[in-house]
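call fold(seq) -> tokens
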Amino acid sequence: MDFLRKSYHTARYTFALLSTALLSTALMPLVAGAAIPTYDFKVVRSYPHDPQAFTEGLLYRDGFLYESTGLNGKSSIRKVNLDTGAILQSKDIPPQYFGEGLTVWGDTLVGLTWQTQTGFVFDLATFELRSQFVYPGEGWGLTQNGKQLIMSDGTATLRFLDPKTFLEVRRIKVTADGIPVDQLNELEVVGDEIFANIWHTSTIARIDPASGKITGWIDMAKLYPAAGKGLNGENVMNGIAYDAEKKRLFVTGKLWPKLYEVKIVPRK
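ret:
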């Protein structure tokens, strides 16, 4: 397991270092207070979260959380009781796959894998595998807008996929004041926006799905100060779920012991 973790950290963190300068430039509005507004948050409530869950995908559906976890040999999909954090149902992903983003489509769960270019379609009720599909490049985050699946791959590009064929329909480049922003990780459609965790940061980007322009930054740095101090700094913020009916927003991170309901507020 140590080897798997080191391999993950070396490959993915090296990639992150290559784009640090670009990402830092793109996030300058967060510090400089430029045209793109910055938002803060208030914690509404905290819930237990499995501290062994290397969270890659998170969603809310019919009163329950559904979560996908990563790392080779540790990847799974699971149904979770929101109030208690109890795992009600789970299915391991074969050990050759590193689980990534997860979303719901109809009566199925659709999941990605990191570098194996393989996606899975599971039955929502039973978690039985229905089918597999392939895609080029890496798989990171996954969400849907009611018409298409929306996928991130670690770059500044978001791909929109046909949910029946899994073929790409269109793509957008995510930018902040014209500068591409990569490392887009877990995704969630919130209202008419896409929220995206930016890997190895405590920032959530608010993205216009039509243009790809970032319309706001959400600074979550004060949420869990202990994050980033374990597993070679990989227990970073990752995981956004939205309860559209009650307009509740949930966030967590990899190996975090808590999941939080938060309210986004303008920075004063």
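Residues 79 and 88 are 5 Å apart (CA to CA).
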